[in-house]
Write a structure and sequence with these properties.
Elements lengths: L11 E3 L2 E3 L3 E3 L14 H9 L6 E8 L16 H16 L3 E7 L17 E2 L8 E2 L5 E2 L5 E2 L5 H17 L4 E6 L4 H6 L14 H4 L1 H14 L4 E5 L13 H15 L4 E5 L4 E3 L2 E3 L5 H6 L3 E5 L4 H10 L4 E4 L1 H5 L3 H4 L32 H5 L1
Parallel strand pairs: 3-16, 4-5, 5-10, 6-9, 10-11, 11-12, 12-15, 15-16
Antiparallel strand pairs: 1-2, 7-8, 13-14
Helix pairs in contact: 1-2, 3-6
The structure holds flavin mononucleotide.
The site of flavin mononucleotide has 21 residues, from strand 4 and helix 10.
């Protein structure tokens, strides 16, 4: 297949950004930002994955000192962190890519060890997360959270706003608000985790209030055209699930569209189905893509074939790739060929702290394969 005939490799205009292809780097936590400060090796890692006109999203990046729940994840609330991001952003821009920072607050996915003064993690609720089996088989334990008082919520919204300003100051082209995967925004959104009886709990409208306040505050600060939102209405990660995810997603997409000019919505597919040994993407996001005013990015389980299919069908505008891009720094290049050779990702080094191993040492396609 010629590159021009590969739907994933066709150009797309996302708001003010001219993208040369539709292969997006999904946000990927790598836990190599020692002491929550991004490191020079991240400039190597991200610039390896940068292409002219490509779109990339950083790993989840903490908005404040209460936002953390994992070792060595980056932040963007201090001047030192902002300064440390700058050369990383510059390295990506030198390659001509568009780079957004994913803004994150873990909420109750934390322990007192991560919190200032050893305090309890904050959340929509004071119900903790039951121990979770991690991908490598160990059991993760979380602290009992403290339910935020109604009057404390505006300060958390403001942390997102300030972090968005810091991201722009660091040189990022925009920000993605992490409203997915069981973190603080989802703890408010989903009825398994939101047991509040104030104006931030109960009805769908109330549960979505915090998320929408964050989006409006961030859009007000940096401009809606520089803001995307990531959502995972159908997943149940970190004990966050909703009794009516389609209604939740439908309401949110309507409200996000009503804000006007918001750049994109990045939605995670429901869990994959395996049919006759082949992974099948359920494609349940179509109604939300149709209702959204703005760019739609689909994520979760995509490969070259499925990605091409959904772009061709108009099911989505862009597709983000997590594990495949983690292991194949030149993924868009590899997608030029029909059955591209792909490096296999190594789960055991996803979250290890080595600045090279499993991080910047995945090989690029050999020149002879590219030429063939
Ligand atoms: C190592 C790893 C780290 C991840 N970190 C984040 C993150 O920081 N923020 C986020 O929204 N999703 C995160 N995810 C989810 C991915 O962005 C993506 O949704 C998921 O990997 C499914 O896409 P894939 O099948 O293309 O890998 C992570 C996934 C992996 C494997």
């Amino acid at each position: 297949m010629e590159a021009a005939a590969v739907p994933l490799l066709t150009p797309y205009k996302m708001g003010d950004f001219e993208l040369s292809h539709r292969v997006v780097l999904a946000p990927l936590t790598r836990q190599r930002s020692y002491g929550n400060v991004p490191q020079p090796h991240a400039a190597v890692y991200y610039s390896q994955r940068a292409t002219k006109g490509g779109f990339m999203i950083t790993e989840a990046t903490g908005v404040s000192d209460t936002a953390q729940g994992y070792t060595d994840t980056p932040g963007i609330w201090t001047a030192e962190q902002v300064a440390a991001w700058r050369p990383i952003v510059d390295a990506v821009h030198a390659k001509g890519a568009v780079f957004f920072c994913q803004l994150w607050h873990v909420g109750r996915v934390s322990t007192t060890a991560f919190q200032p003064g050893g305090a309890a993690p904050i959340s929509s609720t004071d119900r903790g997360i039951p121990p979770q089996l991690s991908f490598d088989g160990h059991v993760e334990e979380f602290g009992k959270p403290r339910r935020l008082e109604t009057h404390e919520i505006p300060a958390i919204v403001d942390d997102f706003r300030k972090a968005a300003r810091n991201a722009i100051d660091a040189g990022f082209d925009g920000v993605e608000i992490h409203g997915a995967n069981g973190y603080i925004i989802e703890q408010f959104l989903k009825d398994s985790a939101n047991d509040r009886d104030d104006e931030y709990g109960g009805s769908l409208e109330n549960r979505c209030r915090f998320a929408l306040e964050v989006v409006r505050a961030v859009a007000g600060e940096v401009g809606a055209g520089r803001v995307g939102v990531r959502l995972s209405p159908f997943t149940d990660y970190m004990d966050c699930h909703d009794s009516d995810p389609a209604a939740l997603a439908g309401y949110l997409v309507g409200e996000l569209s009503a804000i006007g000019g918001l750049l994109y919505c990045h939605m995670i597919e429901p869990r994959l189905a395996i049919v006759e040994g082949r992974r099948v993407i359920p494609h349940r996001l179509r109604p939300f893509r149709e209702a959204l005013k703005g760019t739609f990015i689909a994520s979760g389980g995509y490969d070259r074939e499925e990605g091409n299919k959904v772009v061709e069908e108009g099911y989505t505008d862009l597709v983000s790739f997590g594990r495949l891009f983690l292991a194949n720094p030149d993924l868009p290049k590899r997608f030029e060929v029909l059955d591209p050779p792909l490096n296999k990702y190594d789960r055991t080094t996803f979250y290890t702290s080595d600045p090279v191993v499993g991080y910047t040492d995945y090989p690029f396609l050999a020149a002879d394969v590219q030429a063939a």
